[in-house]
């Protein structure tokens, strides 16, 4: 006797193959059968739901998020569940919540930290996963360990990458994190402290990922003027270490030459011919987003938050900051302030959704001064201050999507439009990234077929991550399932209203339990922390 049969839907198994009209049976959280419609009898199940006219797909796997702390604060992951996401991979761009030497460090290194959250503390990576495991999770969670966090654990806030013995200490710490359940290793080389590191600092750490046969995911050092140097560095690091390389959100940024995306793919193909294992992912949007504090030069980010605030309050240092010749975003240097929007703030909520040309006029100051003033006003909550800019091009995203190894990601955080995280936001598309991908790139523009598009949300990331028994609708796999209306699936977010849930999602099951049913969120949070991978340590 099955627990549930989803009857008569357009079933896509996630492989990229075309659909069948079929039935999907579930027992004890596992897919028990996938058969053509009519083969499975409703009388053989405790419950049967007619999904005629709807798409039945594996649940979406978001292989690049920053929900490390928002899931601690509110594990329901409402913004993700409402658009069919069943698994998230956190700890990206070098940022992870663990390991730390003291709980006092958590507010400094945890992305989207909020002091309002009540939670147990941790030190080691396994401790962090244990805390996460005790929370009712709306999605399954795999966690990478971040280079920036490991660097801080060994070096503190020092403005140096580490000597050979300190790098060896970092490698040992990464090894410990892998042994405790980290699913991979990440770096953020445009961020402090990753920006301090050269390949010879990173290779020993990536060798640990290679030993465990897990991914090295990198936010490369540059994707604009020096894009070719940034991508070549990532390739060289993977080549020397033997690690499997995942280039995060690969599309070039504002300031890159027109041929940058095509040239990057050529470099990747050349490296593959010499046995470097490389794949990549894209954000399905032309808006880029990041921490506002990342605009500061590395010397201004060193030390504690109090150190950073002291520099922001110093007039001479502020002028030096503004003269930075190579800011993380060249769109700032170009002063295209009307294309840069405040996305998230704790103490300046009334400004969220406004562009910096508007904010500058409102405050009667230069937009750059408005940026630095806001960072100063955010104080201890500075790392929750986020902005977005129109820095990507659809043509680059289209080109990436045509590559078989390209996954689609959010680069956002799981949050909710009510509760403790109601004022938090991870990106402009955070509440609708997956829906927008299926709406805009698949249905409206037909860049991909629906079968191809679903593969980039399911099997492509599952295979790359080494996830066991997820990412496909197959007998014996976990029943992570999304049922949606392909005609009406849509993102509803705008810069002014970024916290609207997606439309067109009918049912979502996580480990066989309904997290959404008939378009409504249930109280069930059946997600798990994933520590079991196909990728094991080499003997």
Tags for this entry?
31% helix; 21 strands; nine-stranded mixed sheet; alpha/beta; single chain
The gross shape turns out to be globular
**What fraction of residues sit in β-strands?**
15-25%
> In angstroms, what is the radius of gyration?
22 Å
Sketch the major β-sheet: 9 strands, mixed
Distance between the termini: 42 Å
Counting helices, strands and paired strands, the structural category is: alpha/beta
Count of individual beta strands: 21
Count of DSSP helices? 19
Q: Oligomer, anyone?
A: single chain
Mean pLDDT comes to 94
Low-confidence stretches: none
Percent of residues in helices comes to: 25-40%
How would you explain this protein's 3D organization?
With 539 residues, the chain is α/β, with parallel strands linked by helices. 31% of the residues lie in helices and 19% in strands. It contains 19 helices and 21 strands. Strands 1, 2, 3, 4, 5, 18, 19, 20 and 21 form a nine-stranded mixed beta sheet that branches. Strand 20 and strand 21 form a beta hairpin.
Chart the SSEs and their pairings.
Elements: E1 2-11, E2 20-27, E3 30-36, E4 45-50, E5 55-58, E6 60-62, H1 70-73, H2 78-81, E7 85-90, H3 106-109, H4 125-133, E8 140-143, E9 145-146, H5 147-155, H6 164-179, E10 184-188, H7 199-211, E11 215-219, H8 227-241, E12 244-247, H9 260-272, E13 278-282, E14 287-291, H10 298-301, H11 305-313, H12 315-322, H13 330-333, E15 340-344, H14 356-363, H15 367-378, E16 386-390, H16 394-401, E17 406-408, H17 433-444, H18 450-457, H19 459-465, E18 481-484, E19 505-510, E20 513-517, E21 520-521
Parallel strand pairs: 1-4, 1-5, 6-7, 7-8, 9-10, 10-11, 11-12, 12-13, 13-17
Antiparallel strand pairs: 1-2, 2-3, 5-18, 14-16, 15-16, 18-19, 19-20, 20-21
Helix pairs in contact: 5-6, 6-7, 7-8, 8-9, 14-15, 17-18
């Amino acid at each position: 006797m099955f627990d549930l049969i989803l009857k008569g839907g357009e079933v896509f198994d996630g492989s990229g193959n075309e659909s069948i009209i079929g039935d999907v049976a579930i027992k004890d959280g596992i897919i028990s059968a996938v058969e053509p419609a009519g083969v499975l009898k409703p009388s053989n199940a405790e419950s049967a739901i007619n999904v005629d006219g709807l798409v039945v797909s594996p649940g979406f796997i978001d292989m690049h998020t920053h929900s490390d702390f928002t899931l601690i604060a509110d594990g329901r992951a409402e913004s993700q569940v409402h658009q069919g996401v069943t698994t998230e991979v956190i700890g990206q761009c070098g940022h992870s919540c663990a390991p730390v030497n003291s709980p006092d460090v958590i507010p400094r290194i945890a992305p989207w930290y909020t002091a309002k959250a009540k939670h147990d503390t941790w030190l080691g990576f396994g401790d962090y996963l244990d805390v996460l495991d005790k929370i009712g999770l709306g999605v399954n969670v795999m966690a990478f360990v971040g280079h920036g966090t490991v660097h801080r654990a060994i070096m503190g806030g020092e403005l140096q990458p580490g000597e050979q013995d300190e790098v060896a200490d970092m490698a040992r710490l990464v090894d410990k994190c892998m042994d405790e359940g980290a699913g991979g290793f990440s770096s953020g080389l445009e961020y402090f402290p990753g920006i301090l590191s050269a390949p010879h600092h990173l290779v020993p750490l990536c060798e640990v990922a290679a030993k465990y046969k897990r991914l090295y995911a990198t936010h490369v050092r540059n994707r604009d003027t020096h894009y070719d140097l940034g991508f070549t560095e990532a390739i060289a690091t993977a080549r020397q270490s033997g690690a499997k390389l995942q280039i995060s959100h690969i599309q070039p940024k504002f300031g890159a030459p027109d041929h940058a995306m095509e040239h990057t793919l050529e470099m990747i193909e050349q490296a593959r011919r010499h046995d470097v294992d490389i794949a990549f992912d894209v954000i399905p949007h032309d808006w880029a987003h990041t921490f506002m504090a990342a605009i500061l030069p590395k010397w201004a980010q060193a030390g504690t938050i109090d150190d950073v605030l002291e520099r922001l309050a110093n007039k001479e240092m502020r002028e030096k900051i503004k003269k930075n010749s190579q800011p993380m975003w060249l769109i700032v240097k170009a002063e295209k302030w009307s294309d840069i929007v405040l996305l998230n703030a704790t103490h300046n909520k009334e400004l969220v959704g406004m562009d910096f040309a508007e904010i500058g006029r409102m405050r009667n100051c230069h937009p750059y001064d408005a940026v630095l003033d806001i960072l100063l006003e955010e104080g201890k909550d500075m790392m929750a201050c986020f902005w977005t800019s129109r820095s990507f091009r659809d043509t680059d995203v289209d080109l990436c999507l045509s590559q078989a190894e390209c996954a689609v990601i959010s680069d956002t955080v799981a949050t909710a439009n009510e509760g403790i995280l109601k004022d938090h936001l991870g990106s402009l598309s955070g509440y609708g990234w997956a829906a927008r991908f299926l709406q805009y790139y698949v249905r409206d523009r037909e860049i991909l077929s629906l079968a191809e598009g679903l593969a980039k949300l399911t099997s492509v990331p599952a295979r790359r991550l080494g996830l066991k028994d997820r990412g496909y609708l197959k007998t014996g796999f976990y029943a992570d399932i999304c049922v949606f209306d392909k005609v009406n699936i849509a993102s509803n977010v705008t810069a002014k209203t970024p916290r609207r849930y997606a439309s067109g999602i009918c049912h979502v099951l996580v480990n066989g339990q309904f997290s959404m049913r008939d378009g409504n969120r249930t109280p069930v949070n059946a997600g798990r922390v994933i520590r079991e991978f196909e990728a094991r340590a080499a003997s």
